[in-house]
Amino acid sequence: MEQGYTHNSSKVRWLTLLSWTLGFALLFANVLLVVQNRRLKRELAKEPPAYRPALGSIVLSIEGVSPDGRKVRVEWGDESRDTFLFVFSPHCAVCKLTMPAWRDLAASADTRLHRMVYINTGKTLSNDYLKDMQLPNDAVVISELDPESIVSINIHMTPEVIRIDRNGRIESAWLGLTNDEELDNLKRALTSSG
Known about the structure:
The chain has 194 residues and is an alpha/beta fold. It has two domains: 1-47; 61-191, Glutaredoxin (3-Layer(aba) Sandwich). The chain is 45% helix and 20% strand. The chain contains five helices and seven strands, in the order αβββαβαβαββα. It has a five-stranded mixed beta sheet, covered by helices on one side. Strands 1-2 form a two-stranded antiparallel sheet. The longest helix has 45 residues, at 2-46. It is elongated. The N and C termini lie far apart (89 Å).
């Protein structure tokens, strides 16, 4: 009977030692992953993400189709105002959450200095969706964006707000759901001359 007890006691010690060794190995691996994650974040922060519009790049024009089926072309150069592109998709839940803030921003904008253009990345817009958006009657809404326009602006996600200056240069971009600080920055941009 004592031999069986000694044998079990030896097994328990080995299992305990193995458990502790495995636990320390996992802890060490976890620490290495945390260090690697921090290093990668620092490296990625040095360069803007590929999906972000290239600030400073020139957009020649934007072409697409209005909700009523007319061809629309937005150009710069002769225009004395900056342009804010509000990029959305009818199927994007975050866009629906963002739309009230966009409406407030558009209402507070100095339209002598800025114009708003709403870009639908989807194929078409239903009249019901347009009513739900509650955009101003004179709002420029573009669907079926020309592929060259998509590439020149570098649209990859929704929602997105892109500021294009009077010369067609991308000045700034706000991606995704905007926080209060970003909304304040957008509001200042829309109420100032640049």
